[in-house]
Design brief:
By secondary structure, the chain is an alpha+beta fold. It has five helices and 17 strands. The strands form four sheets. Strands 3, 4, 5, 6, 7 and 8 form a six-stranded mixed sheet that branches. It is globular and about 65 Å long. One of its GO terms (biological process) is DNA repair.
């Protein structure tokens, strides 16, 4: 006897006339209506380069010039462009040409990581010129000559790229910001060369140094070693704890007294008396006189006269060649004041 066909356990459709429907979609952020993939982060803490005495070896390392400026993240969003400093402050209004150029890039949403710089006559990035264009520390000027050197792409048209390896991120960045441009946003190009040779050439041309990046690394916030910087001339932030009066120097500032951090205390590391221009010295003197202190913030045994102590609230960017045997800066030169919005940090002694 033939068996009747088995009845399906459940009909494919309860109602044959009902329309076919897909699964309900997750709710999307109304501020980002076109994004169907990864939500766009409001801010990403930057990946920082670890200072090393010499370039790393190996085929996995890609090299770039080290730029001397302000680290920025350019956010291209549906609502417009935001430019954030390393410390998370919104400086969009201070870089109008960069913001305008970002709007012209052929992308709906993106986060570019890079450095704002101002070039000198030889085409070298100059931190002092960048500061002057912004009106100095705490200034409110807009910089029309600043250029954004883009070296990473963290978000691209709805995709979070921080878990993607550097090689793929660079490939997308180079399609978005072509090499050789002269606009306010330019590509920081990778340089195919041996690290030691590139460092020597960079130093011969008066550049600050080079950066090496692991091609296989993802983007991780902090100073974890996937990025390495090697400097021709050391340059770091030091707290100003006082100054020496002078009747002949610009602004009557003969020298700044500097300190580094060791644990929870400040340690005197010497003085700097070069690198000032007349107008800078006058502004610096006026700023320091507003925060005078009755006693030094460090132990001082230098024997200098005519010293004025101040509260350690100002961080100066200082170039120097090396350290002396007794822990002082060798051949220091003043470059400018770091801005608190740039997450100014005082150099930490080992």
């Amino acid at each position: 006897m033939t068996k009747p066909p088995r009845k399906p356990a459940q009909p494919l459709l309860d109602d044959a006339e009902a329309p076919l429907r897909s699964r309900p979609r997750k709710k999307r952020d109304p501020a980002q209506p076109q994004l169907t993939l990864d939500p766009m982060p409001a801010r990403i803490d930057p990946c920082l380069a670890l200072l090393k005495p010499r370039p790393p070896k190996g085929r996995q390392w890609a090299f770039e010039v080290k730029w001397d400026g302000y680290r920025l993240a350019v956010h291209i969003e549906p609502s417009g462009v935001r430019i954030l400093t390393r410390g998370g402050h919104d400086w969009t209004a201070r870089f109008p040409t960069i913001a305008a150029e970002a709007k012209r890039l052929p992308v709906s949403t993106a986060i570019l990581d890079g450095e704002a710089v101002v070039f000198d006559e030889q085409g070298r990035s100059d931190f002092g010129r960048l500061q002057q264009s912004l009106g100095g520390r705490g200034g409110l000027r807009t910089s029309w000559e600043a250029v954004f050197m883009a070296f990473d792409l963290l978000y691209f048209d709805g995709r979070d790229l921080t878990e993607t390896e550097l090689t793929a991120r660079r490939h997308l960045l180079e399609g978005l910001v072509p090499a050789g441009g002269e606009d306010a946003i330019r590509l920081s190009e990778e340089i195919e060369a041996d690290g030691d040779v590139l460092l020597r050439i960079a130093c011969e041309h008066g550049l600050e140094g080079i950066v090496a990046k692991d091609r296989h690394s993802t983007y991780r916030s902090g100073r974890l070693g996937e990025w390495v910087k090697v400097k021709c001339i050391q340059s770091d932030g030091f707290a100003i704890v006082g100054y020496q009066m002078s009747g002949v120097a610009f602004g009557n500032v003969g020298a700044l007294l500097l300190a580094a951090r060791r644990g929870d205390e400040l340690v005197y590391v010497g003085s700097v008396g070069t690198g000032f221009k007349a107008d800078e010295a006058m502004k610096l003197r006026a700023t320091m006189d507003k925060i005078k202190a009755t006693k030094p913030a460090v132990k001082y045994f230098g024997g200098r006269k005519n010293l004025i102590w101040i509260k350690p609230k100002l961080v100066a960017e200082i170039e120097y060649r090396s350290w002396t045997h007794d822990g002082k800066l060798r051949h220091p030169s003043y470059k400018g004041l770091r801005d608190a919005a740039d997450n100014a940090a005082v150099y930490k002694l080992e």
